[in-house]
Amino acid sequence: MNYPTFATRLSFAVFLALTTIAARPSFAETLSAKSKPNFVVIFIDDMGYGDIEPFGSKLNKTPNLARMADEGMKLTSFYVASPVCTPSRAALMTGCYPQRVGLAKGPGHIVLFPGDAHGLHPDEITIAETLKSVGYATGCFGKWHLGDQPQFLPTEQGFDVYYGIPYSNDMWRGLKRWQFPDLPIMSGTKVVDLVKDMDAQATLCRRFTEQATAFIRQHKDGPFFVYVPHAFVHGPRRASPRFMADGKSVEQAQVEEVDWSVGEILKTIREAGVAENTLVLFTSDNGPAGGLSAGPLRGRKGSGYEGGHREPTLAWWPGVIPAGSVCDELATAMDLLPTFAKLSGAAVPGDRVIDGKDIAALLLAEPNAKSPHDRFFYQQGGMLRAVRSGPWKLFVSGELYNLDADLAEKTNVAADRPDVVATLRKLLDDFKTDLAANSRKVGVAKNARTLVPRPGVDGEEGYRPTLSLPPVKKATKTP
Ligand SMILES: [Ca+2]
Fold first, then answer.
1. Is 33-363 assigned to CATH 3.40.120.10?
2. Tens digit of each residue's pLDDT (9 = 90 or more) over 358-370
């Protein structure tokens, strides 16, 4: 079957817009708005490459994701720019490697903590701001983790509406290693609830789903951008009671509730009659944490191996993205900003380096479409860890793998291919030079404090940033 090329469809949209503008400007505005696709990004926390049925899970029942794959595209070489939360999200939001925007790590830990002075710089231009500039309604429903000070919150980065938790769901009093306050749930810039027990943790997927679907219904005349960074399946884990059936692990229950959430979102889009004008992308922020699966990949959350960075990714846009298609070309979460900009007619920021590239041709399965990336850089512990170019992947340590022949990164072939090692070594060096010359500053807040006080601690002392307090016992794991 032949699909119209993106260029054809775009010219048609432009033709329509131009002819109508000439005749009836006000109607043209409406039509032009309708020709802009809606975008929904569902970003799971800590889910691995092997955790859903379309990516081979035999354990978890994910019928909604299976249907999404049947009706859309499976992206089998889709990467996030970091194997942990904060830098991965910084890259998604800005289309840039996290080092580029000063968020390779937090000021005191690998990710941001409650009350940290750092956050995504307000001068950074997010996907939400990019789309807002061309008239999109924008909503963020879930975990932000790009700074909890007032100037760093989603409503300061292009989101009209925010409902969710400002950082990871384990940054609460249940985790005894640090002196955390209760976990706040925010609406806009206000704390509206506190997560104090596991029963409340279990509600997070449902609550974010309800908020996201309500927003979609409210803005169905579009265009809209909805970002759903779920708190699931990051620990501590508990699912809604109906998913916690006998004999099921809590991980399985959470993955299956996430599948339910995707089903609700797609159903809402269909019922609103906007399925053929809505691109939905499903992926995860980093590789699997404990209890979850990287499938055939080596490495997990936090790792520079494929399991840390390569995510189970689906793209759905009925009538536009070919049903049942598979794309193994290298694509990244950083590509969403330039791709959405292209599809919406928004401008990509031109005054700064943007690492992401337009992957519309891949998503629309244009004949012989190739990855726009001739290199991709992996991080670990906030440091540059490896580079991939074509099938080859070189670690800074000197390990070389051929991912086409050895997806599981089992056989180091560096000794056989000094030529490839030399070529990729230069890419690593060039990237370091580029970052040194073209990086931007992290946002720094004065007088940073936590959003809510630690219970039982009076006055300003109760709001002290978590990392300024002595840990209860030595930290051994990354949250
Ligand atoms: Ca994560």
1. no
2. 999 999 999 999 9
> How does DSSP classify residue 470?
P
Find residue 226's DSSP bridge partners. 40, 139
| Contact call for residues 155 and 120 (beta carbons, < 8 A) | no
Residue type, 24: R
Token pair 């699912």 is found at: 239
Identify which of 64, 75, 144, 134 has the alpha carbon closest to the alpha carbon of residue 112. Answer: 144
Q: 126: CA distance to ligand 1 center in Å?
A: 19
Give 25 Cα–ligand 1 centroid separation in angstroms. 46
Among the options 109, 118, 121, 145, which is catalytic? 145
Question: CATH assignment of 376-437, given 3.40.30.10, 3.30.70.20, 3.30.1120.10, 3.30.70.380?
Answer: 3.30.1120.10
CA separation (Å) from 429 to 79, 386, 435, 436? 21, 11, 10, 11
Q: 300: which 2 tokens?
A: 């997990």
What stretch(es) of the chain map to CATH 3.40.720.10? 33-363
- Tell me, rounded to whole angstroms, the distance of Cα 346 from its chain centroid: 20
Q: Are 126 and 162 in contact (CB under 8 A)?
A: no
Which pLDDT does position 471 carry in this prediction?
A: 83
pLDDT tops 90 at residue 136: yes
140 included as an active-site residue: no
Q: Taking all residues of the chain, what is their mean pLDDT, rounded to a whole number?
A: 93
> Diameter of the chain by CA atoms?
71
The segment(s) of the chain belonging to CATH 3.30.1120.10 are: 376-437
74 CB neighbour count, 10 Å cutoff? 20
Q: For residue 85, report the distance from its CA to the centre of ligand 1, in Å.
A: 4
Residue 318 Cα, ligand 1 centroid: separation in angstroms?
A: 29
